[in-house]
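User: Second chain of the day. Same drill as before.
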Amino acid sequence: MQRRVIIFFLLIIIAATKLVAQKASDVLEYIASFKDIAIKEMKRTGVPAAIKLAQGIHETEAGKSDLVVKSNNHFGIKCKADWNGDRVFHDDDSRGECFRSYSNPEQSFMDHSDFLKRSSRYSFLFELDPTDYEGWAFGLKKAGYATNVKYSQILINLIRTYNLEDYTLIALGKMKESDHLLATNNIIGSIITPREESAIVDAGPQMMNVPPYPAVQFAINNTKVIYVNSKTPWLSLAEQYNIPLSRLWDFNDLEKDDDILQKPQLVYLQRKRKVGGGEFHVMKNGEDLYDVCQSEGIRYESLLELNHLNGNRTPAVGEKLNLKYPATAPPSLALDLKNKLSYNNLSEKNIPRAENIPSNKAQLNIGEPEIAFERTTHLVSSNETLYSISKKYGVELEKIMKWNRLDNMNVKIGQSLIIYKNN
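Assistant: Same format as last time:
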C-alpha cells in the first residue's frame, strides 16, 4: 500500500513538471509568433513592444485561452458602445460579457494599440520613456486596464523573465535582432524541482514564480554558477560548495558583502572569464555594470577595461558594450558624474547605513565635486505605491528597495521608508 502511494505522488510530480515546462514552451512559442507584430505596432503607435507582448501572454494564457481561440482577441478588450465589428460572448467578470472579435491576430494587436492611443485615460503613458516598462505596467493598472491587483507585477515579471525589453530596443533601433538572444537559454532545459514546481503551478498561466535561471548548478560562459534566492547566507553557500568565503566573494567581484544575499542573484562558483561568451551586451533598463558582469560571466575589471569605463559611470540604455575585444570609444553614459552622481551607482556599498548616519546629511566622497545627499524619511500614505514614491523623489525604485532592504514592492500605509536624494 505504501509503495502505491509513493508511486502515485511521483506520477503527480512528473505530470506537474511536464505541465510547467509546457507552459514555458507555450510562452516562448507565443513570443516567436507575435514579436514582429509587436515591433511593427510600436513603430506605428509608440506602444512598447515589451508591454504589448507581456499583456498578450497574460491575457491569452500564452495563446491558449478560450477567448483568443474563438475570437483572436489577444488583449481582452470588451465591445464597448463604440464597437461595430464582430463580437463573441465570454464569461469574465460577469457571465456572457461581450468581447471584440477579429479575423486574425494582427487586427487585435492593431486595435489594442489604437485603443490605448485614442483613449484619454491612457494618454499619459505616451509621455513616458518607451523603455520605462515599469512605468507603463503601473500606469496601465492605475488607468483601469485590469482589475487584478497584481496586474502590474505580472507584466513586469514576464518582461524580465523572457527578456521582452529587447524587442522594445529593437523597435527603437537601439538593438539589432541578430544581437538578441531570446531567453530560451535560461528557460528551456531548466530543471524544476518538486519544491519549485508547486509554487509555479499555483501561479497558473501568469508564470509569476518561474525562476529566470535553472534551479540547479549550470554554466554561463563556461563558468559554474547557481541562482540563489534572497536571504541565503553567504557562509552556507561557501560551506555547501567547499569554497572559502573570501574566494566566493572574489569570484563574484565583491570585496565583502552582507552576511546574507539581499536579493535573488547569480552566484559564481569559479572565477569568471576575462572575455564574454558573446561579442556584445546591450544595456537594458535598470541594469548597471555589475548586472552585466553577472549575466555575461565576465570579470568586472575586464568589462571596464574593454569599454574604457570606470566603476562610477553607467552606460545609457541601448548602448552596446564589448565583451571580447576593446571598444574604439567608450559608450554614451546615462549621467555624467562631473555634474551629478548617477543614482544607478547608489548602493549599499557607497551609501552609509542608516543607523551609522549621525545627521540628516551624508557626504559621499566620490571625487570632485563633492556632493551632499539628504536622508529623508517618507511615511507611506493611502493610494501610494513604491513606484509613485520613487517618481516623487526622482530616484530609482530598485534603490529604494535596496536602502530599505525590501524583498518586494509591497508597502503598507504608515510604513517608514528611508530615501536619499541629491541636495
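The mean pLDDT is 76.

User: Great, on to the next one.
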